[in-house]
Each structure stands twice: as C-alpha cells, then as structure tokens.
C-alpha cells in the first residue's frame, strides 16, 4: 500500500459513519444539555454580533472575531463542497447538511465558551485559546496535555492543507479557466497579498476579514437569490426530492435531481462531512478566533461565534444547493470525459442558466475572495496552534513567512493527495475536540445558565 492509498484508508475511517455519528451526536447531546438555548437565543446571538465594548478584554471586537472565524469557513466548501455533496450524496445530502448545521450551532457555541473561559495571554499580550488550552487547563492531567498537544499538531498540519494549498489551488485553477491568467501570476499575487496581511498579525487579519467576508457574502447571496427567484417554480419539486432522498433506503432523484442515485447513508455521509468541512463545527478551529474577542462573558462570545454555522451553512450553503437544484443541472454529464459534472464547474453551470458567460466570472471571483479569506483565517489557527507547541516568537514569524510562500505552491501545483490529507487532518482535529466538549459539558452548561440568568434575565 503506497502513501496515497494509506492516506485514503485513514481518511475513509476518520470520515466514516461512526465518526460522523460522534460529530452529530455531540451536537445533539449539547443541544439537549443546554436546554436548546443556543437555538432559542439565535436572534440574541445575531444581535450580539455588532456589540462592541472597548473596555472588555481581548484583541478583536466580537464582529472581527466572528469574521476571522467566518473567513476560514466561508470558502471553497460553500461553492465546491456543496456541489460535490449533491453529486456524491444526492439531493438528500443538502437536508443532512442542514440538520448537522442545526446541531452544529450548539457545538460551535460550546467550543467558543470553553475557548474564552480557558484562554491565556502570550508573551506579547495577545489572547490565546482553543481546544488545546481547554484540554490542558479544563480536563488537566497527562491525558489533557497529550490531547491538547495532539489537537495543536493536527491543526498546524491542517492549516497547510485545507487552509492553504487547497484554497490557493482553487484560486489558481479558477482564474486560469475564467480569465486565462497563468497560475504563476496568480501565485505571485497571492504570495504578496498574504505576506502584506499575515506578517502584521491577528489585528491585520481581523480588519481585512471584517471587510472581505461581509462584502463577498452579500454579493454572492444577491446573485444566488436572483437565480432562485427566476427558477422559483422548480423550488417545491427540488425541496420534495431533497427530503425524499434524505430518508429513502434507495432512490433515484429524477427530474430536477438528474440521474443521481443515493441512499440515506450516502446522503448522510456526504451531507454531514461537507457541512462540517464548510462550517467546521466540532473541529475546534473557530474557537481559536473566539478566544481573541473582547467580551465580558464567555457565553456572550459563544453565542456570537455560534452564528457562524448559521450564516455559513444554513444560509450560504443552502442557497448554493437550491441554485443547483432549481437550475436542473444536477446530473449533467461532461461530454468530453463522460463523467458527472461536479465541484466548481457544476456551480458555474447552474449560474450560467441565468448569467450566461458571466457565470464563470461571478463564481470564480467569489471563489477567489472566499478562498483567500480562508487562507487568512487558517493562518491564524495554525499560528496559535504552533504557539501552543513552540512559544518562541521567531518561530511564529517564520511560520507566517513560510505559510505565505506556500500559497504560491498551492496556486501553481496540482497535488491530488492534498485533498485527502486535508480531510484527514480536519477529522483528526475533531477527535480531541469532541472529547473535550463531552468531558467539559458541565463547564459549558454552567456558563450558559449563568449568562441566561444573570445577563439575559436582566436585559429582558
């Protein structure tokens, strides 16, 4: 068995049904444990996104912290991941993506609460937190320290894969196909832009992310809504087929679903996997950004960051899925290869039903900005994880420089194994993080109920 086959086998295990059940199961457990408050308080959570108190301790405003987290999640998963899930898991995958995201709101809330509760300050006065610190300080003992170090190691590895090479490769491929721009030119531009932002640290990342993410999300949502409105007559049938295939032992989509055949387990596998790939609920990455937020209560920032799953998957991913379904392009076959059209080409094909040749420019530009913001967000995750393992500042600056340079490699080289590597590292991150959430569920519940009584009780 060669390296790629071994990596594929590990990836199949990491993202197999048992691990996916653990991911969703943890979300279900936390939702019930917290008496559904992350759902009930969702309007409050959205309201808190724009709350800003300079007197609170932290490096970023709640909005900047959320945008930094969203910058790492709103990316290729929203465009490429959704279409891949629909092709491999059928239309029912979109339903499971939505279900997993609903419980993911509670998971993201709990992760972020623990990140703020157990955060520390580093040698230059920046706040540091995440599953590694919660495991070390909350769980404690040798087990907590080993699990914390394991999470940090997997996160550093993932930052180079899912957070860099795959994103840069998507940008390079999109710009070459749509604008005939050489991947080398794209790589150089990416390298320069990354260096300019990343070498200046977290505050620079927060400022850039707080501009790019909302701007691109607004325009992408606008373009998708126009398509859905135009194809609104197909929406009821699309939703019906999605629900039917989500819970059917075996069914062919037919009609707006094309010739896709999938069963319930396949739909669940790809819906949950690509949903988590997009919103990262349960992976433990987003809490690293939450720990840097200025906040007066761990639960307040927990609510703010929990909206990331709502915005990312329940809005942007679902809109992409409905565009593909209502456009009738799912199940299309590429005449040159004879294979089903998937990934970004499928999304572009759906957009072209309304925007014609302009579709490739719209999707490519959206993909590029989303992917670039993901590069910024994941550099921060990787940096803070590396800092947990090696606290010396020269090492951190070297990491920032190396990370920026690798964007050039990602943009110019097609590395097939990187996708499996990225998926594997993401999945391995989730294991110590989920263990942390389950072991410290009492801490999360105490923070949640205290906030509900002491702060929300007074505000109401």
Number of folding domains?
1
CATH class wording: Mainly Alpha
Beta percentage is under 5%
Strand numbers in spatial order across the main sheet: 1-2
Number of strands: 4
Mean pLDDT: 87
Task: Summarize the biggest pleated sheet.
Answer: 2 strands, antiparallel
What is the approximate shape?
globular
- How far the N terminus sits from the C terminus, by CA atoms, comes to 62 Å
CATH fold type: Amino acid/polyamine transporter I
Second rung of CATH, namely the architecture: Up-down Bundle
Low-confidence stretches: 253-257
- The rounded Rg comes to 21 Å
Helix content bin = over 70%
Q: What would your notes on this structure say?
A:
With 460 residues, this protein is an all-alpha fold. The chain has a single domain (3-459), classed as Amino acid/polyamine transporter I (Up-down Bundle), CATH 1.20.1740. It is built from 20 helices and 4 strands. The protein has helices spanning 3-14, 17-33, 37-40, 42-48, 62-73, 76-89, 92-117, 131-139, 141-179, 183-198, 202-230, 235-246, 264-279, 286-290, 298-327, 343-355, 358-389, 393-412, 416-439, 441-459, and strands at 120-121, 127-128, 251-252, 261-262. Helix 11 (202-230) packs antiparallel against helix 17 (358-389). The termini are far apart. Residues 253-257 have low confidence and may be disordered.
């Amino acid at each position: 068995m060669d390296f790629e086959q071994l990596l594929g086998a590990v990836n199949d295990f990491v993202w197999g049904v048992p691990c996916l059940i653990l991911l969703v199961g943890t979300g279900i457990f936390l939702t019930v444990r917290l008496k559904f408050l992350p759902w009930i308080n969702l309007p409050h959570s959205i309201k808190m996104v724009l709350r800003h108190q300079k007197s609170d301790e932290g490096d970023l405003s709640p909005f900047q912290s959320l945008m930094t987290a969203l910058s790492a999640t709103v990316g290729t998963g929203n465009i490429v991941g959704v279409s891949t899930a629909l092709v491999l898991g059928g239309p029912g995958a979109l339903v499971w993506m939505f279900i997993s995201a609903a419980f993911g709101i509670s998971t993201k809330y709990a992760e972020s609460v623990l990140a703020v509760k157990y955060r520390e300050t580093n040698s230059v006065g920046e706040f540091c937190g995440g599953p590694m610190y919660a495991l070390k300080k909350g769980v404690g003992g040798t087990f907590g320290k080993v699990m914390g170090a394991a999470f940090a190691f997997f996160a550093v590895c993932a930052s180079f894969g899912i957070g860099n090479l795959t994103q840069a490769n998507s940008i390079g491929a999109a710009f070459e196909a749509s604008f005939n721009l050489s991947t080398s030119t794209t790589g150089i531009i990416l390298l320069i832009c990354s260096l300019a932002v990343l070498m200046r640290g977290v505050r620079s990342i927060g400022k850039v992310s707080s501009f790019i993410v909302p701007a691109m999300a607004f325009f992408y949502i606008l373009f998708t809504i126009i398509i859905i409105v135009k194809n609104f007559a197909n929406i009821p049938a699309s939703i019906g087929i999605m629900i039917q295939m989500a819970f059917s032992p075996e069914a062919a989509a037919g009609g707006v679903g094309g010739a896709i055949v999938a069963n319930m387990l396949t739909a669940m596998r790809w819906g949950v996997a690509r949903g988590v790939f997009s919103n990262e609920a349960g992976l433990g990455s987003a809490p690293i950004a939450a720990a840097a937020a200025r906040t007066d209560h761990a639960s307040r920032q927990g609510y703010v960051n929990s909206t990331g799953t709502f915005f990312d998957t329940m809005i942007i991913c679902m809109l992409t899925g409905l565009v593909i379904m209502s456009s009738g392009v799912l199940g299309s076959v590429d005449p040159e290869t004879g294979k089903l059209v998937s990934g970004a080409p499928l999304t572009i094909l759906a957009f072209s039903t309304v925007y014609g040749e302009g579709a490739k420019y719209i999707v490519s530009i959206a993909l590029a900005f989303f992917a670039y913001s993901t590069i910024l967000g994941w550099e921060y995750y990787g940096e803070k994880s590396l800092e947990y393992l090696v606290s010396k500042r020269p090492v951190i600056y070297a990491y920032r420089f190396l990370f920026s340079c690798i964007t050039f490699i990602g943009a110019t080289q097609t590395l097939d194994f990187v996708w499996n590597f990225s998926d594997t590292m993401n999945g391995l991150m989730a294991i110590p993080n989920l263990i942390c959430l389950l072991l410290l569920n009492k801490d999360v519940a105490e923070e949640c109920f205290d906030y509900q009584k002491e702060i929300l009780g007074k505000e109401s």
